[in-house]
Each structure stands twice: as C-alpha cells, then as structure tokens.
C-alpha cells in the first residue's frame, strides 16, 4: 500500500474541525499542515518564529481558501509564552491539539522555573498545554496527539536527575524528555478516549541535521535514500487524529519503528510503575510552573 492509498483508506473529512499544532513550520509540521488542510481542517499554527509562521499561513490560505488559518506565538522555552498560548487556545474551539514541536541538539541553559531547556521544550511545556486543554478537548470529543520518539528507549528516567541536567549526550536528554511526555500522557488521559501517542520514525528534518556541518553534508543525501521523507513520516502523526492509543501503545512506522506506513503497536519495555512515577512528577512540575508569577 502506498501513501496515497493509505491516506484515502485511513482518513476522512475534517471540515468544521480546528486543529492546533506546535512546530507547524518544522520538517514534519509543514507537510502535516498541508495534509490537514487538504482534509478541510482549519488550523492554528503554534510557532516561535512568526515570520515563518506567517509565510506558512499565507501559503495554506492561498492553496486552501475554504479553511481558516490562525497563528499564536509559542516559545516552549518560556513558560510565560506557554501560558499565554494556553489562554488563547482556551478561547478557541479547538478539536485537536498536536504536540509536534521538539528540539534535539541545542545550546543548553536553565529556564525560568529551574528546568533544563531541552526538558522544557520536549516535555514540561507540551505537558502544560495538554493539561490545560484536556477538559475542552474532552468536551468536544476531540483528540490529543503526542509526538513521541524512539529515543525514549535510550535510557530510563532518573528521579535524582529529572531533567538530565548532568547528562551531556543530546540523545539521552532528548529521549528522557520524550519518555516523560509519553508516559505521563498515558496516565493524564487514562480515563478518556482522547489520546494518541505517535512517532514518525526517522526522517531527514532539522532534528536529524544536528551533526557537524561537514559530516552532515556527506551523509545528508544517503540519509534521504535510507530514511523516509518528512511527508511520509508525517502520516503516523496524522493517523493519530483518526485512532486512539491505549496505555503502552503508539502509532508509528511498521518496520522496526523506522520504515513504512503507520501501524499501532505495543511499546516494548513499557513500565507501569515508572509511568505512575513520571505522571506524579509531571503533575508536580505543572503546579510549579502554574504558580510562577508572570513577567510584567
């Protein structure tokens, strides 16, 4: 089965629905937005870079004049930006929230609230948005789509170093944050048929461009031959809008979680006790961030 056939058999019209998506202008975000728009969904683009966000909004509006495209600034490193975004989303009729944005190899620093910025971007801020929007999504029989990663298997969480601030390896820090987001989301949504945990496998995007420039220049084109295109990889995330996942399940590429069309599978090594601990920590972090005074 090819992409077009899968798309035809596994999706349906989203006319009248509004989908908010973080990281809309990124490597997976843009083709995902184009697919959503082709299904008739109105979009709310949640992005830090407003120049790129406006350019994408204009492009989508021109190609799909029947849909509405709105923009809300969102900087996941900054809790004040996250809170402002959540407040604005609560004023919209949002039917689905896709937590797509992420950051891998970036300069590390401590954010307001005391957590490492990789942890904030990939876990704490997305979880905050999910927690705030969950009641509204439930009322509208909507969907929360969490974009996970195979990197969550690289190490177990550490209660003594929650945000992996002492670790230097980028894959461990990124994987730890994704593990927190995935595991805590299962428990956050455990009594609601609303959650889809997805993962795109490996595609050549800005996430995979973290190698030194010379090395990346040498491997970029071989990687394009080996791994899926962003357009194909985005199908797993799209599939999350049309199917839910139970605890310990996710939707992603069917072959070794790297290649192929989407398939729902059990998470190997999923630990319910660890999930309980990460959910409790997530709730504590949410309360900490909510209590922080906003900037003047």
Could you give a short description of this structure?
The chain has 296 residues and is an alpha/beta fold. It is built from nine helices and eight strands.
Describe how the helices and strands are arranged.
Blueprint: H1 3-10, E1 18-22, H2 29-38, E2 42-47, H3 50-63, E3 69-73, H4 79-89, E4 96-99, H5 117-139, E5 143-147, H6 170-188, E6 195-198, H7 213-226, H8 230-239, E7 249-255, E8 259-266, H9 272-291
Parallel strand pairs: 1-2, 1-4, 2-3, 4-5, 5-6
Antiparallel strand pairs: 7-8
Helix pairs in contact: 2-8, 4-5, 5-6, 5-9, 6-9
Describe this structure in words.
The chain is α/β, with parallel strands linked by helices. The protein has a single domain, classed as NAD(P)-binding Rossmann-like Domain (Rossmann fold, 3-Layer(aba) Sandwich), CATH 3.40.50. The protein is 44% helix and 15% strand. It is built from 9 helices and 8 strands. It has helices at 3-10, 29-38, 50-63, 79-89, 117-139, 170-188, 213-226, 230-239, 272-291; strands at residues 18-22, 42-47, 69-73, 96-99, 143-147, 195-198, 249-255, 259-266. It has a 6-stranded parallel sheet, sandwiched between helices. Strand 5, helix 6 (170-188) and strand 6 (195-198) form a beta-alpha-beta unit. Helix 2 crosses helix 8, helix 5 packs across helix 9 and helix 6 packs across helix 9 (272-291). 46% of the residues are buried. The mean pLDDT is 92.
């Amino acid at each position: 089965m090819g992409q077009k056939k899968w798309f035809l058999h596994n999706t349906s019209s989203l006319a009248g629905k509004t989908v908010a998506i973080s990281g809309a202008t990124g490597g997976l975000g843009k083709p995902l937005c184009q697919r959503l728009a082709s299904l008739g969904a109105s979009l709310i683009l949640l992005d830090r870079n407003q120049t790129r966000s406006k350019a994408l909004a204009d492009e989508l509006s021109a190609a799909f004049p029947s849909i509405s495209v709105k923009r809300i600034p969102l900087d996941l490193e900054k809790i004040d930006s996250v809170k402002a975004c959540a407040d604005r989303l609560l004023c919209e009729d949002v039917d689905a929230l896709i937590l797509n944005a992420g950051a891998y190899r970036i300069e590390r620093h401590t954010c307001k609230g005391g957590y490492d910025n990789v942890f904030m971007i990939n876990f704490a801020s997305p979880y905050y948005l999910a927690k705030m929007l969950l009641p509204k999504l439930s009322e509208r029989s909507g969907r929360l789509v969490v974009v996970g990663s195979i990197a969550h298997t690289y190490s177990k969480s550490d209660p003594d170093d929650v945000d992996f601030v002492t670790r230097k390896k980028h894959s461990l820090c990124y994987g730890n944050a994704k593990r927190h987001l995935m595991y805590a989301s299962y428990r956050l949504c455990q009594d609601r048929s609303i959650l889809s945990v997805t993962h795109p496998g490996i595609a050549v995007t800005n996430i995979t461009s973290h190698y030194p420039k010379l090395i990346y220049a040498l491997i970029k084109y071989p990687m394009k031959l080996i791994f899926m295109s962003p357009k194909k990889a985005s199908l797993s995330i799209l599939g999350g809008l049309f199917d839910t996942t139970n605890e310990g399940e996710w939707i992603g590429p069917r072959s070794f979680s790297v290649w192929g069309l989407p398939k729902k599978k059990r998470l190997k090594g999923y630990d319910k006790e660890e999930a309980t601990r990460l959910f409790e920590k997530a709730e504590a972090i949410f309360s900490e961030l909510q209590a922080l005074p906003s900037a003047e």
